[in-house]
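[step 3/7] fold_predict: job queued, chain A
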Amino acid sequence: MLISELAKKTGLSKDTIRFYEKIGLITAEERQAGTRIYKEFSEATIARLLMINQGKGIGFTLNEIKQLIDEWEDGTLSTREQIRVIEGKLAEIAEKMQRLGEMKTYLATKLDRLKQDVA
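[step 4/7] structure written:
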């Protein structure tokens, strides 16, 4: 499928897809049509892009995602290493949640005080 169809199916912009290809997160075959060269993406690219978005959504960087996908696909990421990576990310998420909770409490207290001053 061409990049425009891939963009529609994934909700990602063409620029994002091109960037992901440039850094090696996804691949495309080149297809020549007349004097133009088009990028042809496989159906498997859709699943990979969804996995990348999910990874980003839970706090993985693009470099981490690329490394994990590459190692997962070539079989070099042991189960112990997978566990270590996931546990580390869960710890990061827990820390972020704690900081967000503290910020939420601070802002709620500030809002209450401001409302009292207005009343």
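[step 5/7] annotate
The radius of gyration is 21 Å.
Strands lie at 29-33, 36-40.
exit 0
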